[in-house]
Structures are given as structure tokens and as C-alpha cells.
């Protein structure tokens, strides 16, 4: 009978009996042990999922769209798994010497160690453990499994006889199913090394700014020593204790033949040579020189929290993010983001309370390339009465969390234009627009009320009144034309069109009106509802993409720790407009920004200086709310859509004035020019003759 067989047999006989004794100061009565039942003494058992398919908590990393530039990480435990083959042999030797010198000899339970601990605990009145490296891994894996409840994880480390026996049985079974090196690798990836570093990869980075494959003997011995006593970490704790633990590990390596005496002495004498390196955690930890990334990061967390694929509740989704080890390639383009941030500060510097939140969206995918605002992302104190200036973590660009948005003025005329085209009216629909137009829509008292009826007026009688078609009216932003057009197609159709293109009613009053009073909401056409630059850029991007609306997304791909990409990272696009309707709207949208429609029907626009500077086909719209309280500019090409709104987020009564719009137009033009500088010039597809000049039945095809 060989020695290995004897060891296994001895293990079967003694494992269950001695397990409880190791935990106790005195011997456990035999009757109690045998009272646990024969089933509990069986050495092999089915493994739980935590051991069959381990999922230790790992940090998730959020990258820019190049897949390499780290924006930040999210974690409760700073850990990222590495294959054991990528761990320096000296580190593997050090951990075995420190924690389980007979690791490669036993079968999961070290009979000699159990007997030694039992004897020591009886004679010396001390508590000496007998956990093998495999048993330690079992305990850590169960305690850290994100699939278990907090109660289940706590049960994995409770000091009971049953837990110890279960741990031994799992260890024995595990060693029958996977090899020693795999167990060692799992252990190194799950162990806590102090200073917030979980796993050998995080520890190598945290203490020495290196990777596990480059660890030296002195570094490996130090890290191995910290596993038993992580509170002695030399960064935050006791460097002398860490040196003593290092020396202990080096002595054990010499005793077991894993290091020469000379090498060990040299390692003992070496300085600790720490090179601490922290892993950023959450959006507040974006790189200091890229503080503007914080607003995109914040919106990413909003997006993640809304995805049912990651859990049933927000709390579950956050646990999934912070424990799941995801590799998330975002849509953020650092180059476009930098230019957008620069141009936003050309509109308004950080030193004033007014803001210019701006979003850049890719038509056809919904990917958000940039989100910028002239604010510092952070929670530092602000002057009294200024919640969002100069510091804020509120989502000024995308809305949510109490930010309902800003009125976008005449940019909402797009939705009336689309509803009219969809109803069968052509671009050539002519109306003699008066200075003031009295509509059928009831309104309260105010400057746009005529006997209780909504009666908008044109801002420039000479330039706007008279016969106008859709090209001309959209280019010159003729209020009375679009009030008349809204009556023809129905205000509820205009509201529905906005919702179809992704406009979200975050203000309760707007949501109630859209739900209960859309038929009488004529003023909606002139942009009285609050919106955000992100929603607006996404809506105009649908026109740029010939009717395909894509839900704005902050991600390009999401991969699990194995590298498998999951569907939650895919784009969410759908055809929401007839292609001809979208093409016709794009054609009319060329008029406001100084471009020319395919049918040469543009005759004046509110932002005519934009197109000549860009020198490529472009479309868009400007908007001013009542009293110029806010100013808005949207511009798009087939490849990109940009929207910016000037407002005071803390004081809607602070009218920004019309003068800022010139700076907005210039900024949007420069953002487009920069972002598209290496892209081919693409033209819009012209609309057909029917949608341009003929009344038809409703155009709801595609």
C-alpha cells in the first residue's frame, strides 16, 4: 500500500472527527462528532456553484472608445483575475511557503497539519489552525461569491464544527476535480493583501506599480507575508511588521528549498522599495486632468442603473457593476470631448453662473462621443444659492436626478415639420404667415394670449411675415407658420413625434400635459417643454440617419471577465420615420444654417454663418425661449449631431440674452469641423419629388 493511498485513507477517517477539535481549545467529545451523522463525515460531496464556476468580486473598468484609455473603475474589492501562468514562479513559491508548505503533497486536507494542530491546542492551550491553502480558497470563494446573499456569505466564515467539516469535504472534492496549479491560481486571485488590494494583480499594482509576472523575490515574499496579516500593510500600517513577515516567508522558502540562503539574505536586506499605485473608483476618481469626463461617467452610471440585464433593482445593478469584472468600452471619444469642453468654455467660462451643456451624438448608433459643460465635476462647496456653480455632480447635460432640462425654443419646430410631412403635406406647403396668429388652443393670461387663445407673434415682421413654405419657414423660424401648421396636423401629433424621437418629459407639469392635454398643447411647437442637449441631439440625429432613432448610449461594448461580449452593450435602434419624411426634414433643416436645399428653396436662415465655415453639407436649427431666457443651437451632418443650450440651471429667471447664440453657433461649427476633420464629406440624400411638392396620403411606410 503506497504512501499516497495511506494519506487519503487517513484523511477519510480523521478529517471529520478532527475538524471540530482544531477549532476548540479542548477536545470535542466524540459523541458530538459522531452525532453529526455519517453523511457529514463523507469526504466527498457535490460542489456549490461558487467552487465549480467561481465568480469572485472583480473590479469593472470603464474605457474610452479606443478600448485602452481608462476613464475610471468601479469596485467594492479592487481585484482583476490573471491566469496562474502569468504569475512569477517566485510568487507562487512564496505563497506556498507562507501558507501551506505541503500543498503539493496533500489532497486538500493535510492530515499531519490537523493532527499537529489538535495536539498543540490540547497541550499548549493555544489555537493553532490547520487550514490548507485549498481550504482557505474554499472559505474565501464562498464568502466572496456575489451570487450569494450577505447571510450566505457570512455563514461561510462562521466558527462552527459544521462549517469546518463542510470546508474539508469541499477541499477534498475540489482537488479531485481540478489541478493544484489551478487551485493555486484561484487562491492568488482571491486572497486579500491589505491596502484595499484583492488578488495578486491588484496587490502587485498597489504596492509596486508592477504586474504579477514581474515580481522579484523580495516583493513576492512581502506580499505573501501580508496574506496572513493584511493589517500590517506597509503603506497604511506597520512597515517593520511587514519586514518581519517578509523575513519569515524568506526563511520558509529556504527551509523548503524554494530559495537559496544567499538570495533570501539579499532579499531580507533590500529596502521595501514601495511604489504605491491606487486604482480609481467611481466617477469622482476620473483623472484630475480630465475632470470633464466626470459628467459622461455620471451619465454612464445612470444608464447602467436603468438596464434590467444587470438586475431587478438599482441596488442589484450596482452590485453587478462593482463586483462583476466587466470590461466596458464606452463611446466617449477623448479627442472630441476635449474639443467640446474647450468650445463650451468659449461660450461661457467656468467663472459665471450661466452654463452651456453640450452633447455630441453619432447618428445611426446613438453613441455619445462627448458631454461637456462649463462646470467642475465634484462636490466642493458652492456659494449660497448656487447648487450647480461652479462645482456639481448633477447631470446638466443629460438630465435626471432633479435636473429636468431647459426650454429649447424653436428647435421643437422640427417635430411639427415632421408631423406635417408624415400627414401627407409636402415641403412646398404655403401659408401667408401674419405677424400674429390666433389659434384655437386655450391658454392663460400672458403676452401670447388673445382672449384666452394662444396667439404667437413673429419676432421679425419684415423678415418673417408673408407667404412661406416649409423650407422658408423653418429657415427663418416663422412662429405663426408653425402655429398654423400645428393646428392642421394636431398638437397631439407634434407631441407624439417628439416622444418618438426620444424627447423625455422630466418636469412633472410637462409629463402631465403630454399625457392628459396634448391635443390642446399648441405652444409645445415653440419649445416650451423642458429638454436636454442629449435628448435634442439624439432627436436631430434620427433625421440625419434617415429616420432611424437610436437610444443614446454611453457604451460601445461590454464584456464579462472571460471576454464574452453581452447584448446589453449593443445599440438600440429602430426606424421611427418614413425615410422620405426624414430626408425631407433634413432638406428643410439645411436652410437655418446657411446651407442650400436640394431643390434650391432655402432663402435665409437664423444661423447662416455656420455652413460656410464648415465647408460640408450641414443642417440644424436655432431656438430662443421667451425673453431669451435660454438659447439653443443644434447642427448635424450625416455623421454627427451636436446640441448646446445656454441657460442658468440655478435661476431660470436669469435670461441669458440673444447675444450668446452667436458664440454657440461658432462653437458648434468648430466642434463639427474638428470631429469630422478626418472623415469623408458626405451629403444628405435628396427627398423625392412627391414629398417635396405633392399632397399625399399619410407617409408612414418603411
From TrEMBL:
Domain Penicillin-binding protein transpeptidase stretches: 359-653
Limits of the Glycosyl transferase family domain: 71-253
UniProt-listed Gene3D superfamilies: Biosynthetic peptidoglycan transglycosylase-like, DD-peptidase/beta-lactamase superfamily
Keyword field: Carboxypeptidase, Glycosyltransferase, Hydrolase, Multifunctional enzyme, Protease, Transferase
InterPro entries xref list: Beta-lactam/transpept-like, Glyco_trans_51, Glycosyltr_51/Transpeptidase, Lysozyme-like_dom_sf, PBP_transglycosylase, PCN-bd_Tpept
Catalytically driven reaction(s): [GlcNAc-(1->4)-Mur2Ac(oyl-L-Ala-gamma-D-Glu-L-Lys-D-Ala-D-Ala)](n)-di-trans,octa-cis-undecaprenyl diphosphate + beta-D-GlcNAc-(1->4)-Mur2Ac(oyl-L-Ala-gamma-D-Glu-L-Lys-D-Ala-D-Ala)-di-trans,octa-cis-undecaprenyl diphosphate = [GlcNAc-(1->4)-Mur2Ac(oyl-L-Ala-gamma-D-Glu-L-Lys-D-Ala-D-Ala)](n+1)-di-trans,octa-cis-undecaprenyl diphosphate + di-trans,octa-cis-undecaprenyl diphosphate + H(+); Preferential cleavage: (Ac)2-L-Lys-D-Ala-|-D-Ala. Also transpeptidation of peptidyl-alanyl moieties that are N-acyl substituents of D-alanine
Protein name: Penicillin-binding protein
Amino acid at each position: 500500500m503506497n504512501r499516497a493511498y495511506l494519506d487519503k485513507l487517513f484523511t477519510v477517517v480523521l478529517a471529520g472527527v478532527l475538524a471540530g477539535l482544531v477549532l476548540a481549545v479542548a477536545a470535542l467529545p466524540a459523541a458530538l462528532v459522531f452525532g453529526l451523522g455519517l453523511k457529514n463525515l463523507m469526504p466527498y460531496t457535490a460542489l456549490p456553484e461558487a467552487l465549480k464556476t467561481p465568480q469572485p468580486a472583480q473590479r469593472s473598468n470603464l474605457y474610452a472608445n479606443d478600448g485602452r484609455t481608462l476613464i475610471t473603475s468601479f469596485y467594492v474589492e479592487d481585484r482583476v483575475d490573471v491566469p496562474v501562468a502569468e504569475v512569477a514562479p517566485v510568487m507562487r513559491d512564496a505563497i506556498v511557503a507562507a501558507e501551506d508548505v505541503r500543498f503539493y503533497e496533500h489532497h486538500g486536507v493535510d492530515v499531519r497539519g490537523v493532527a499537529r494542530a489538535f495536539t498543540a491546542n490540547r497541550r499548549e492551550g493555544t489555537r493553532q489552525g490547520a487550514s490548507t491553502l485549498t481550504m482557505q480558497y474554499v472559505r474565501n470563494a464562498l464568502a466572496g461569491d456575489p451570487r450569494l446573499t450577505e447571510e450566505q456569505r457570512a455563514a461561510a466564515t462562521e466558527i462552527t464544527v459544521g462549517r469546518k467539516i463542510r470546508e474539508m469535504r469541499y477541499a477534498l472534492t475540489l482537488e479531485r476535480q481540478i489541478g493544484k496549479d489551478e487551485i493555486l491560481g484561484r487562491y492568488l486571485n482571491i486572497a486579500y493583501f491589505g491596502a484595499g488590494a484583492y488578488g495578486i494583480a491588484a496587490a502587485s499594482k498597489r504596492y509596486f506599480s508592477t504586474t504579477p509576472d514581474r515580481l522579484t523575490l523580495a516583493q513576492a515574499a512581502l506580499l505573501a507575508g501580508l496574506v496572513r496579516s493584511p493589517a500590517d500593510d506597509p503603506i497604511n500600517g506597520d512597515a517593520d511588521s511587514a519586514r518581519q513577515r517578509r523575513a519569515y516567508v524568506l526563511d520558509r522558502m529556504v527551509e523548503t528549498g524554494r530559495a537559496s540562503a544567499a538570495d533570501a539574505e539579499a532579499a531580507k536586506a533590500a529596502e521595501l522599495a514601495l511604489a504605491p499605485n491606487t486604482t480609481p473608483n467611481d466617477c469622482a476618481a476620473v483623472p484630475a486632468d480630465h475632470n470633464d469626463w466626470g459628467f459622461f461617467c455620471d451619465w454612464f452610471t445612470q444608464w447602467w442603473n436603468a438596464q434590467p440585464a444587470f438586475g431587478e433593482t438599482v441596488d442589484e445593478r450596482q452590485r453587478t457593476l462593482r463586483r462583476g469584472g466587466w470590461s466596458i468600452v464606452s463611446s466617449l471619444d477623448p479627442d472630441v470631448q476635449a474639443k467640446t469642453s474647450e468650445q463650451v468654455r468659449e461660450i461661457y467660462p467656468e467663472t459665471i453662473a450661466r452654463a452651456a451643456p453640450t452633447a455630441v451624438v453619432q447618428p445611426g448608433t446613438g453613441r455619445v462621443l462627448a458631454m461637456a459643460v462649463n462646470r467642475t465635476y465634484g462636490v466642493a462647496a458652492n456659494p449660497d444659492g448656487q447648487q450647480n456653480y461652479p462645482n456639481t455632480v448633477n447631470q446638466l447635460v443629460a438630465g435626471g436626478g432633479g435636473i429636468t432640462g431647459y426650454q429649447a425654443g424653436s428647435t421643437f419646430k422640427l417635430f411639427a415639420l415632421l408631423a406635417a410631412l408624415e400627414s401627407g403635406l409636402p415641403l412646398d406647403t404655403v401659408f401667408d404667415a401674419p405677424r400674429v396668429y390666433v389659434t384655437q388652443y386655450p391658454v392663460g393670461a400672458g403676452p401670447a394670449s388673445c382672449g384666452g387663445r394662444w396667439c404667437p407673434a413673429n419676432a421679425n415682421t419684415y423678415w418673417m411675415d408673408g407667404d412661406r413654405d416649409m423650407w422658408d419657414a423653418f429657415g427663418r423660424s416663422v412662429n405663426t407658420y408653425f402655429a398654423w401648421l400645428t393646428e392642421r396636423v394636431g398638437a397631439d401629433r407634434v407631441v407624439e413625434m417628439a416622444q418618438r424621437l426620444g424627447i423625455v418629459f422630466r418636469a412633472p407639469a410637462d409629463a402631465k400635459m403630454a399625457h392628459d392635454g396634448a391635443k390642446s398643447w399648441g405652444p409645445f411647437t415653440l419649445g416650451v417643454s423642458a429638454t436636454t442637449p442629449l435628448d435634442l441631439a439624439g432627436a436631430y440625429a434620427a433625421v440625419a440617419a434617415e429616420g432611424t432613432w437610436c437610444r443614446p448610449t454611453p457604451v460601445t461594448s461590454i464584456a464579462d471577465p472571460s471576454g464574452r461580449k453581452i447584448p446589453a452593450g449593443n445599440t438600440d435602434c429602430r426606424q421611427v420615420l418614413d425615410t422620405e419624411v426624414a430626408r425631407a426634414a433634413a432638406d428643410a433643416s439645411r436652410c437655418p444654417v446657411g446651407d442650400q436645399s436640394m431643390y434650391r428653396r432655402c432663402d435665409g436662415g437664423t444661423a447662416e454663418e455656420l455652413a460656410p465655415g464648415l465647408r460640408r453639407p450641414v443642417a440644424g436649427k436655432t431656438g430662443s425661449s421667451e425673453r431669451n431666457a435660454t438659447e439653443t443651437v443644434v447642427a448635424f451632418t450625416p455623421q454627427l449631431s451636436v446640441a448646446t443650450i445656454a441657460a442658468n440651471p440655478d435661476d431660470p429667471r436669469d435670461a441669458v440674452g440673444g447675444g450668446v447664440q452667436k458664440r454657440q453657433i461658432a462653437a458648434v461649427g468648430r466642434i463639427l469641423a474638428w470631429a469630422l476633420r478626418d472623415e469623408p464629406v458626405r451629403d444628405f440624400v435628396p427627398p423625392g419629388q412627391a414629398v417635396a411638392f405633392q399632397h399625399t396620403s399619410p407617409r408612414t411606410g418603411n
